[in-house]
Design a protein that fits this description.
This protein is mostly beta strands. 8% of the residues lie in helices and 36% in strands.
């Protein structure tokens, strides 16, 4: 995981290495306080190290700002970024810890135009062998449909591969591990991860998860236990509530088990469950003969961290040509074991089907067609009368 940060500050007149007073001048002729933020947890060789310096004022192209340390391969240029909230510039860099860096504490010097203005410390941790891990829910077996967190950390001198794959008979297919440079583990450029799902058809049993390298060589194996929920398990039927309904301008907290709308109307369908079935979170669907199409419910991530039961909702649209009446809305979950139905009452006259030939076109065609039919009918009657007269002659 990405490390935390510590702060080192040097005020005006402070004494640095070699007895050099090194605070830069401020606009008012005084001296500005320089603050240095660095990654505080020990960084391994090859890991990225965060340096953030504030208090240097406006960037000056004639005086380059740098950070240097025996833990780096060489001096690193600091890049300036304007921070709107703080109304000042921040000078940043993310150098890599040199693979040759020895474990322990190393000095870090910040310089502007070759003049040292601040200092901090770089802590280097020992290198460790590559590690393959599969996260599993502690204390219980994995459920069919559940997502696993798989990672491979090979931040170790000499490792160079970038293509890794996990396979298991418990999965529907192989999954590729990738590195996310913008994720929480940005500092580890050789951390690869994936989120494979256990097949919803997986039978109870013990399965092996195998990690393969670029050329197919096996780099590691881990075992997982899969067992479907059984009667008595908290997640067997969960604690489902819904479907409930609320308007587009309303709130999920105001949802009710019935709703009144008009043909062509729109509203939200809500579903909550204290123990949602694994693998169905992306497949929860509300169906109704009143809907234009089934509604795929999406998880409300804003409620993920406040202790509330997971909830899902999405917008439904009523068919515009629907007759007034009461219509069921159904959600099925927990592998068909839970089925709940609410009611939507449609009031008012249904809307006409949309015209597809342009304004006025259907009426025009109807008028022309009516005239043609009338003319054709008169011609047939005239032929029949003429035939009867000829027969009587």
């Amino acid at each position: 995981m990405s490390g935390g940060r510590v702060m080192a500050a040097v005020a005006a007149g402070a004494v640095l290495y070699g007895g050099v007073a090194a605070a830069p001048a401020a606009a008012d002729g005084g001296e500005r306080r320089v603050t240095v933020f660095v990654t505080d947890s020990g960084s391994r060789p090859g890991e990225l190290f965060s340096v953030n310096v504030r208090g240097l004022g406006r960037p000056d192209a004639r005086q380059e700002a740098t950070a240097s340390s025996p833990a780096f391969a060489g001096p690193v240029r600091l890049t300036a970024y304007w921070m709107d909230l703080e109304k000042e510039y921040s000078f940043q860099a993310k150098p890599a810890i040199a693979e040759s860096a020895r474990p322990g504490s190393h000095p870090l010097l910040v310089a502007v135009g070759g003049r040292t203005v601040a200092k901090a410390t770089v802590r280097v941790a020992p290198a460790k062998r590559p590690e393959f891990s599969v996260s599993a829910s502690p204390g219980r077996a994995q459920r069919p449909g559940e997502t696993l967190a798989v990672s491979y950390d090979d931040l170790y001198p000499g490792e160079t591969g970038h293509t890794f794959t996990v396979r298991s008979e418990a999965f529907d297919g192989p999954a590729s591990l990738t590195h996310d440079p913008d994720g929480p583990d940005w500092n580890n450029p050789r951390l690869f991860s994936a989120l494979p799902a256990i097949s919803r058809q997986a039978k109870d049993g013990v399965y092996t998860v195998t990690l393969s390298g670029p050329s197919g060589q096996v780099l590691g194996r881990r075992q997982i236990t899969v067992r479907a929920a059984r009667p008595g398990d908290a997640d067997y039927l969960g604690k489902a509530r819904g479907p409930l309904f609320f308007g587009l301008s309303g709130s999920p907290e105001d949802a009710a088990n019935h709703y009144r709308t008009k043909p062509g109307g729109t509203f939200n369908v809500l579903w909550t469950d204290a123990s949602p079935d694994r693998g169905e979170e992306t497949a929860l669907t509300a169906t109704s003969p009143a809907f234009q199409r089934p509604v795929r419910l999406k998880r409300d991530d804003s409620k993920a961290a406040d202790g509330s039961d997971p909830r899902y909702y999405a917008t439904a649209r009523v068919r515009p040509d629907l007759d007034p009446g009461s219509y069921p809305v159904t959600v099925v979950s927990h592998h068909q074991r839970v089925k709940r139905t609410g009611q939507v009452v449609v009031t008012g006259e249904r809307k006409a089907a949309p015209e597809t030939e342009g304004p006025g076109r259907p009426a025009l065609l109807a008028g022309v067609g009516g005239a043609a039919v009338a003319a054709g009918t008169g011609f047939v009657l005239w032929r029949r009368r003429a035939a009867r007269r000829a027969g009587n002659v």
